[in-house]
Design goal:
This protein is an alpha/beta fold and 167 residues long. It folds into two domains: 117 residues, Rossmann fold (3-Layer(aba) Sandwich), CATH 3.40.50; 33 residues, no CATH class. The chain is built from six helices and seven strands, in the order βαβαβαβαβαββα. The strands form two sheets. The chain has a five-stranded parallel β-sheet, sandwiched between helices. α3 links the parallel β3 and β4. The two termini are 28 Å apart.
């Protein structure tokens, strides 16, 4: 994974947040940890994040209200951490635009796989991630536009690729 991917982990249980942080770092992610919704909103204002893993039930400002606040101006993937008895949180969370959820207790390797999946799906060419871009080429006499997905290309690689495509 791209070490420029920053994941925000939000959970009031410091042990859970700490274990998730360790696994994410081992998987190559930069990690920020917050212990309630207000800390999460502050972290999002201070630094760019590419994905959020957030507990739905926290004191001060819970995950659902935090998600509602985040969605006012950010389109960042969010994975909610839910307790088994909170089926309504699954439905409500997905309806207010959580991207995924996982039930506690969960397999940490499954959580990492979900993180990677969401980042693959939501990653686009932008200022935050200049090394992952979609190149679109015109085809002569065709109404179809083929696409070439380039992942983690260095500036030199881009130059070589574009020359070989006559772009």
């Amino acid at each position: 994974m791209n070490p420029n991917h920053r994941v925000l982990v939000v959970d009031d249980d410091k042990a859970i947040a700490g274990v998730i942080e360790i696994y994410l770092k081992q998987a190559g992610f930069a990690v920020t940890v917050a212990y309630n919704g207000m800390e999460a909103l502050n972290a999002l204002q201070n630094e760019e994040h590419h994905l959020i893993i957030m507990d739905s039930m926290m004191p001060k400002f819970d995950g659902i209200n935090t998600l509602l606040n985040i969605r006012e101006d950010k389109k960042i993937p969010v994975i909610l951490l839910l307790t088994p008895s909170k089926n309504i949180d699954k439905i409500f969370g997905l309806n207010i635009s959580a991207d995924d959820y996982i039930i506690k207790p969960f397999n940490l390797l499954e959580l990492i796989a979900r993180v990677k999946s969401k980042l693959r799906r939501y990653t686009t060419c932008d200022a935050a991630m200049p090394n992952r871009c979609m190149i679109t080429m015109n085809t002569q006499g065709s109404d179809k536009t083929p696409s070439l997905f380039i992942s983690d290309a260095s500036a030199k690689s881009w130059e070589t690729i574009l020359k070989s495509l006559n772009i």
